[in-house]
Amino acid sequence: MPKAVCRRILLGLVLGLAAATGAAAQTATVRGFVTAAADREPLPGVNVVALREGVLLRGAITDGDGVYVLGGLPAGRVVVRASFVGFATQTDTLDLRAGEIRILNLTLAGAEAELGEIVVEDEGEGGAARLSGGLQSIRPKDLELVPVPDVSGDLAAYLTTLPGVVTLGDRGGQFFVRGGEPSHNLVLLDGMYVHQPFHLLGFYSAFPADIIQRADVYLGGFGAPYSGRIASVIDVYARNGNKRRFAGAASAAPFVSTVRVEGPLMAERVSFLASVRQSVIEDVAARYVAQDLPFRFDDAFGKVHAVLNANHQLSVTALRTHDRGRLGAASAERLDEIRWTNEAVGLRYLVLPRRVPFVAEILLSWSRLYAEVGPDDAPVRWTEFDGLNYAVNMTDFIGGNEWKWGLFWRVPEITTLLGGLFQNVEFGTSRRHKAGVYLEPDLRLTETLRLRVGVIAQLFPGQENTAFVEPRARLLWQRGRHEATAAAGLHHQEVFGLNDRRDATNVFTAWRSAPTDRLARAVHVLAGYRTAPTGWLDLAAEVYYKRLSDLYVAEWTAFPRFTTRLQRASGRVAGLDLRAEVRRARFYAALTYGLSSVRYEAQQEAIALWYGTETLAFHPPHDRRHQLDLRVAGAVREVELSLRWNLGSGRPFSRLFGFDGFVLMNGAVDLFDTADEQRVIYERPFQARLPAYHRLDVSAERRFAFDGFSLTVQGGVINVYDRRNLFALDLFTLRRSDQLPVLPTLGLKVEVP
Amino acid sequence: MRETTEQGYAGVKARGEDAVPCARTSAHAASPSYLLPLIPILLAVLLLLGGCDESVNPRLGIDRPFTVWGLFNPKTDTHAVRLFEIEGTIREVRPEPLDAVVTSTRLGDGAQRVWRDSVVTLRDGDVRHVYWAAFDARTGETYRLAVRRSDGAETSAEVTIPPPVTLELLPPDTTAVTEILLPVAVVGEAPQLPRVEVRYEVVSTPFGGDVSFHDVVVSYQSRAERVAGGWRIDIDLRDDFRTIFLDLTEKEVSTERIVLREMELTVHVGDEAWLSPVGDFEADVLVEPGVFSNVENGFGFVGAGFFEVIRWSPPAPLQDRAGFHVER
Asked: Which residues of B touch A625 (CB under 8 A)?
C-alpha cells in the first residue's frame, strides 16, 4: 500500500481517538484490578457493573489481568458491583465527579454463586463450545478434562481436541491450525515470543496447567494487537503465584515429573511462581512399552509479580525448554536426532494512570530458539532465531467504547545453516528492524451489535518495501442466548519456517527472513454462531475461509533423497467447526466436529513440463478432512473419570509405482563408467490418503486430603483398544512407525494448597 | 514428449487398475423419505468402518519392465545400454544376471544382434548391468533396440545414426568492443548438439606466489546456431575470462595473472530425438520419469551420437584483450 494512503488512514484514526478523548472529559471513569482473596491472583472474566438506583449504567468484564474499566459514567452516586461464579458478590458505593478517574481495586472471596445477577457476556469465557469469532479462551480446568499420561493437564493436549487443529501424530510437536503451518502460529507467554513451545511428545508443551491462568487461542480472524503471523495466535497468560502463603506440588508419572513452588516474597505485594518438569520417558515409559521412545525434554518456568501500588503492577517472566529426540529409524550416527532450546525472558509493566483514562501495558522481552539436527558434536543443520520485542499496548475507554492502540518494535535476528536440505537456500543470516503501530476501536453500535475495526501499519526501515497495512474487522451480535460473529483480516508474516513435509519424521524447522516484497500473506474470513439453549448446553458453529500466498514448500523430485529445492506456493483453506458442550454439576461432555479442506498450488518451474498444468494443485499432508472429538467426564463418588475418543480421517500422502535408475544423458556419455542415481517413479503427489486415526484414552483420578497437603492418584490408559495409528511410513523401505500403543499410566501428585 | 494425465505419467497405470468407469447408479432408485433420518447414522457407520483399516499400501506396481539408457556411437565399434529393472522396492543393483534379453535390429535389412551383459563396478562401488554389442553403426540407418523379459514384456526404442561432422576454426570477430568472438563451424548435418563445452587450461602465476594449473569448463549448451551446412558456435573469450576469473576467485586462487595455455572445444552430436524439452540438460528437471524419453513401455533414453574435439590457442593479442596475461 502506498505510504501516503497509509499515513492518511493512521492520521484519521488518531484524530478520531483525540476527539473521542475530549468527549470523555465530561464523564467519570472507574477502574481497577479484581483479585481473588485467597491468593491475590487476578480474576479474569468477572462481571463488574455500575448501577444507579438499580438501573445498569455500564458493565465490563475483567481482562486477563483482572482489569476492568467502567467509562462514560455520569457524575453522582453509583453502585459498583462485582460478581463471579464461585465468589461472593462485592458491592461498593462511589460519589463521582465529572471528569474523575477513580481507581477501585476489588477482592472477591470464594462463595456460592448468586442467582439473578446482572451479567455482561464475556467473549473470552472458557468452554469447548464457547467459540466466538475464532477465539476460544481456555482455562486450567478445561485442560484437566483431557486424559494425558500425567496428573496435571497441558495446553498441548487440549489443543489437539480443537476442530481445525491438526497434528501429524502424538510426537513431533507440530500443530497446524486451520490449514496453516506450525511456523504460522504466534505463541506468546506473558507477551514473550516462544517460537517452538511444543515438546517432541505431543501431550506436552511449555504450558502445563499448573502455571496457566488462561490461554486465548485465536484460530483465525485475530485482531490488530497481534501481527507477524498468518495462521493463529496462542496467547498464554501465566499465573502470578500466591501472594498470601507458600504452596507447591510435586508429581511423578511414567512420562514426566514435575515440581512447582509458589509463594509471597513480600506478603500481599510480591509473589513468585516456579515450575520445573523433566521427562522420564526413556527411563520409565519405554521400559514397559514395546517401542523405542527416544524422547527427552524438560522445561523450567519462573515468574515474579509485584503490585507496586494500587495502580501499578510489574512482572518478570522467564522460560527455558529443551527437547532432544529422534523420530525416524534408529541409527548409531544419530544423523536425524533433533534438539531444540527455547529461552525467553520478559518484563511486563501494567499501569492504570490516575490522570488519563488509559490502561497501559509495556512489554520488553527477549526470546531465542536454537534448533539443530545431527550428531551432538557435528550438527548437519541448525537455525537460531532470537530477538528483542518492545511493545506498548494501550486500552482506552471512551464513551462506553474500548479503543486499543499500541506501538511495537521488533528486532528478529535469524541465522540458519541448512546443510543441503534445500539446495537453492543454504545459509542465511538477517537482522531486520520492524516497527509498527495499530489502532483498534471496539464500537458498540447498538445494544446488541459491536464492531471492532482495526488497522496495523508495519514498517521495515531500510527494506525494499517499507510499509504494510493490515486491516482487521470483527462484528459481534449478541441477543439473549444467541451470538453471531464475523471477522475478516489481512495478515503478513516476515519470517517463515522451512520444513520438508515430504517426511513426517523430519520436524526440523529452519527459520528465514522473507524478502519484503514476498511476505507470506493470508486473508481470513469467518462467521460463526453460538447459542445456549439451556443453562447447561452450549452449541457453536463456525465457517472459515483463508487465502494464502507466498508460502514456501519443498520442490517435488524423483530423486530418493531428503534434500531438495524450495518452491513458492499459494493455497486456500475452507472449513467448518461444530461444537456442543454439556456442563452439569457432576457430568461434562463435549463433542466437536471439524470439516476442513486445505489445498496448495505450487509454482515449480518444471510443473508445466511434468504435469501439463501451470501449477500443481495438491492437498498437503496436514489436510485432515474430518475430525471428531468426544470428551466425557464425570464423578463417581470421590473418583473423577474422564474419557476422550478422537477420530481423524486420513491425511494425504504420495504413492509410487516403483524404482529404477537415472542417467543424465547430456551427451555421448560412457555407459560403462558414468555415474547414475536411483530414482523413484511416483504417482502424482499426494493423491492417496493414509488410514484414519482414532484413539480412546481414559483416566480416573482421586484426591485424598490430609492435614496440610493432598495426594492425588491418577490412573489411566492411553489408546485403550490398541489402535495401530500410523505416524510415519518410509515409502522406500515400507518401514512403518506407529504412534503410542496401549499404554497404562499411573501418576501421583502431592500438593500443598 | 510424454502426455500427462490426472493420474500421473502417460500410460502408467497401477497393476490391476480397472479402466472401466464406475457404473452409474440408477436415477430412478429414489430414497424413501423415511430413510432420510438414517443417512447421518449410515454416514457415521461408514466413517467408523473406514476407520477400522490400519493398513496402508503405497506401492501401485507398474507394468513397464525396464528402464534403458543407451548409446549407439558410430565412431566406435561398441555400443552399450545400461539396464535397470523397474522394481517394487528400492535396493542396490545385484550382479546376478537379469531376466532380460537385449537385441538390436537394423530396420533397413532386418539384421539382428543379441547384446551381451556385463556387470560393471562404478567408482562408488555400485554394480550395474551394461549390455553391449560390437558392430559398425552405419550413418542414416535406423536401429530398434528391444529388451525382452521371459514373460514377454518388452521395452524398446528406435534410433537413427547421425552423420559425421568436422570442426573448423573460423576467423575471429574482434569488431565488437565488448566481445571477442572465436567462431567455430560444425560442418555436417548434425541433427542435435546436446552438449557443447569449452575447457580452458589456465595457469595462475601471481608475482612471488605459487604457480597453479586449473581447468575451467564453460558450457555453450543451447548457444550453437544452425547455419547452412551445419552449426556455428561463437565462443566469447572476454565473457569466458570473466567466468574463469570468478571461478578461480571462488576457489581462492590468485587472479593476479591468469595465463591461457590452451582451449578445447567438445561438441556432442546427437540424433534428432536428443533434445531436452527445457533446452538445458538439467538433472532436477529431466529426472521425472518420462520427461526426456524415447523408450516404449519403459523409461530412459537411447540415443545415437558421438563427440568431436578441437584444441587450439587463440592469438596472443586477443588473449590480452580478453584479460589473460600474455608475456611481452
From this structure: none
